[in-house]
Amino acid sequence: MSESARLITINPTSIDDALVVEAGAALAAGKLVAIPTETVYGLGCNALDPDAIAGVFEAKGRPASDPLIVHVDGVAMADTLIEGGLPTVATRLAAAFWPGPLTMVLPKTEIVPDAITSGGPTVGVRCPAHPVARALITASGVPVAAPSANRFGRISPTTAAHVVEELGDRIDLIVDAGPADHGVESTVVTFEGDEAVILRHGALTAEALADHVAVREVGEADADARAAAPGHDLRHYSPRTPAIATTTTPGDATEGDIVYVAYDDRAIPLPGGWSFFSLGDRSDLELVARNLYANLRRLDAAAHDLIVIELTDAAGIGRAIDDRLTRAASGIVTTTDVALAGAVAEVLQAKPSPDPRRR
Predict the structure, then answer these.
(1) Does pTM top 0.90 for this prediction?
(2) Alpha carbon of 181 to those of 133, 159, 225: distances in Å?
(3) Which in 59, 163, 211, 315 has the greatest CB count within 10 A?
(4) What Å distances lie between residue 41 and 7, 132, 144, CA to CA?
(5) Res 220 pLDDT > 50
(6) What is the domain extent for residue 141?
């Protein structure tokens, strides 16, 4: 597309049925529709239409190796996508957490196009909690594939305005239903027997899952399992500005136009030229997560030479926050002030010198 996508607003507390029918029909017809969910905004398409799926990959610039999550309006629709239907352990989690920010990766049926799963034998399925998202899926009559509605590898969108910025001239329709509630993507799990294996931390915590099933982390060496989850690249959810993640403080790092991103719990001495940006109060990490991507966008727009981001080093939703921040930093995590100073110097030395002819 070259024209700007049409933008419609649907109030989630007073849903306009006519607009839902319109957007649902567009999805069924193979159009690309940005939809609100409780996690982030997704780029929705008919998950059974190969041409529409190809359009999503093209619009995002997404590699074919990164599978898509398929969104459903309930267990009955999910069962059409899962070989043999949801197994007992998955049914238990669906009863506890669907609708909600939980994606379950299970063996797919033949109706699921290979492009959805990157050629793999499994498909990730979730039932979103956002009332507009579910209404759109029901109105379309088809399962809806919906990766985040941004250019591949970039910061995920949590408002319709973010979608316009990222994909406004590449898709057909954007449904605005206000800011996303959680602000980070769904938690992704697969299963080994009755054990849930976490492939990606997200808005649903490991602790909440553990109240219902045995839980473990995917092994570092388990490349096949990791590949079944979206967003598995080391660099993802990333600003254009170079970034470093850290578990320490700057110490005697190089001076420069650098922003140190941390929390409100303590004052941090900073080298000359450094500025401070707060992600919020570490005692309210749910709020930190909700505003995380919007804050990363603000930092990126400020055009600093470097962003240094302190990880939460916390359990619960902190794991999802730290995962996103680590990927935003291309996996660069420093654990001592000496290592941080070295990483800062290396990034600044690699930065191209400004052209004196440009003003």
Answers:
(1) yes
(2) 13, 10, 28
(3) 163
(4) 14, 11, 13
(5) yes
(6) 6-227
